[in-house]
Specification:
Oligomer: heterodimer
Largest sheet of chain A: none
Distance between the termini of chain A: 53 Å
Shape of chain A: globular
Number of strands of chain B: 10
Largest interface: A-B, 12 and 24 residues
Strand order of the largest sheet of chain B: 6-7-8-3-9-10
Helix content of chain B: 25-40%
Order of helices and strands of chain A: HHHHHHHH
Number of strands of chain A: 0
Number of domains of chain B: 1
CATH class of chain B: Alpha Beta
CATH architecture of chain B: 3-Layer(aba) Sandwich
Number of domains of chain A: 1
Helix content of chain A: over 70%
Order of helices and strands of chain B: EEEHEEHEHHHEHEHEEHH
Shape of chain B: globular
Distance between the termini of chain B: 50 Å
CATH topology of chain B: Rossmann fold
Largest sheet of chain B: 6 strands, mixed
Strand content of chain A: under 5%
Radius of gyration of chain A: 22 Å
């Protein structure tokens, strides 16, 4: 009986821990949203975070998107050539894949790695060196000062980065389609133009959800950091891993939901 | 006046405070002593609302802050200045911005001339105005503590809390900080609560010394009374002896 009891206790503790974490994340999210509407916005800090999260991530997300678009065109072209003897629908496949899936997901994964880690490490270090407590005693709510600017910047910049990733990825796809596969420009762009606006919205709505996942997870992990340098390392790794897993898992469910609602 | 009444605080299975009652009178400097992990810093954080008690009351100027909302707590926090153990200066801001941080957020009134306020606050802790433009990473340990102190007093609080003010400093710098604490109390007529296990510092800065042991107050008295104590627990602590009723958990390496 003992192993069963121990297993049950371990399982129930895991369930309690998970429920506590979910509850704390929801509380943090509620405080953040409340703070946005009830307190004076620290515009300078928001702009600084927009620069950090958006502008500083632009190069790496663009490069990722460029090569993703290029390889997508290459693989689609050669695969369809094998099946149909012609590189058909390259523009359609590249456009739809990027707008609906790869643009938002890859941008979010790159931002989770770069920005999520930075947020968790910065807030985590402030926490273990008592700077977060110091904010409290100096009349500043850490949610307002640390979370709100990152929250707003992330929610604004991740969709913008996604739009650029979509455009640059399609550009990369065009380069390969035209110069490597010999597809006429007009054919490629006609196929791109035939894509509906809703498909773009599909991707943008998802990118907004991913931004929410990244910023909430990394701020939460930072504010919960304890145990010195080792704790900061643990929080940073955990923020990135949890964000990426949530992005990839929620991708399926969000896509299913949006498709069932007729968006894209 | 600050009163703690039958305060309990636990972190998981670790019951740190188990019915602590303590009173801090206006204008005095009370030093809380006790071994590592006995809840000295927790007591300070309970007074300023950084932690909430599991049970009991924390009364600041007649108001119980144990269960009040965040907005009401923010009002109470204006009365406090807090010098953290590692100074907790904001790395990304200059010394001047650190000193003005609390004034800007707590008082919300016109600052007048911020440069003068920075200069005056730094002057009170014995620092030259040139330090104002430096970043915390460019300061020594002692200077960080002084800037932390300048930041804590800049908004003219009624109470100042010192969390291990001399820890990590050399003996001379420790004494300089002790002098500063006495000096600030006399100049600003401020109520001070310090937490330390540096007995030399405790004797120098305190009007009264209180000892916490096993989550409760075991003794309180003037430095002279504490030095003359016959209580075996207090005696062992102030003489720093490893033999006596206080048993420190020590890992055995065999």
């Amino acid at each position: 009986m003992k192993p069963i009891r121990v297993t049950f206790q371990l399982f129930s503790r895991q369930v309690v821990d998970l429920s506590e974490t979910v509850g704390s994340v929801v509380v943090l999210l509620r405080k953040t949203v409340r703070s946005i509407f009830t307190t004076r916005l620290d515009t300078k800090n928001v702009v600084a975070q927009m620069y950090e999260i958006g502008y500083q991530s632009f190069a790496v997300t663009s490069l990722t998107a460029l090569f993703t678009g290029m390889v997508l065109a290459l693989q689609t072209g050669f695969s369809f050539k094998k099946v149909f003897n012609e590189p058909l629908y390259v523009g359609t496949v590249v456009g739809l894949s990027l707008l609906k899936e790869l643009g938002p997901v890859l941008t979010a994964v790159v931002v989770a790695g770069r920005v999520g880690a930075a947020i968790a490490a910065e807030i985590g270090t402030m926490n273990v060196t008592e700077q977060v407590d110091a904010l409290f005693t100096l009349g500043t709510n850490p949610v307002r000062y640390l979370v709100v600017p990152r929250f707003l910047a992330c929610l604004l910049m991740v969709p913008i980065l996604t739009v650029f990733a979509d455009l640059i990825g399609i550009g990369g796809g065009y380069l390969v389609a035209h110069f490597r596969l010999g597809i006429p420009s007009s054919t490629f762009w006609d196929e791109i133009n035939a894509i509906e606006l809703e498909d773009g919205f599909h991707g943008l709505i998802k990118s907004l959800a991913y931004a929410l996942i990244i910023v909430t997870t990394s701020c939460y992990k930072g504010l919960k950091t304890s145990g010195g340098a080792e704790g900061v390392g643990r929080a940073t790794t955990s923020a990135v891993v949890v964000s990426m897993v949530f992005i990839l898992v929620s991708d399926y469910f969000l896509s299913a939901l949006l498709v069932s609602l007729g968006i894209g | 006046m600050i009163q703690l009444e039958n305060v309990h605080k636990a972190f998981g299975a670790n019951r740190v405070l188990r019915g602590l009652s303590l009173e801090i009178r206006d204008g005095e400097t009370l030093t809380i002593i006790g071994g590592s992990g006995t809840g000295k810093s927790v007591t300070l954080k309970l007074m300023v609302g950084l932690l909430r008690p599991d049970q009991g009351r924390v009364i600041v100027d007649g108001q119980d802050i144990a269960g009040i909302g965040e907005d009401a707590l923010a009002e109470v926090q204006k009365k406090f200045g807090f010098l953290f153990q590692g100074a907790a200066l904001f790395d990304s801001l200059t010394v001047a911005e650190n000193v003005l941080f609390g004034v800007r957020n707590l008082n919300r009134k016109s600052l007048g001339r911020p440069d003068e306020l920075v200069e005056r606050s730094l002057g009170l802790v014995g620092l030259k105005p040139e330090v104002a433009r430096l970043k915390p990473a460019e300061l020594s340990g002692g200077m960080k503590k002084r800037v932390g102190l300048a930041r804590a007093i800049a908004h003219e609080p009624e109470y100042i809390l010192y969390d291990e003010p001399t820890t990590g400093l050399d003996p001379i710098m420790s004494d300089v900080i002790n002098d500063l604490i006495v000096n600030i109390r006399e100049k600003l007529k401020i109520t001070s609560i310090a937490v330390t296990h540096d007995m030399k510092s405790a004797y120098k800065i305190s009007n009264r010394i209180a000892m916490i042991y096993e989550g409760r107050l075991v003794s309180v008295g003037t430095p002279a009374e504490i030095q003359a104590t016959t209580d075996p627990v207090l005696r062992q602590f102030i003489t720093g002896s490893s033999h006596g009723p206080i048993q420190m958990p020590v890992k055995a390496y065999v």
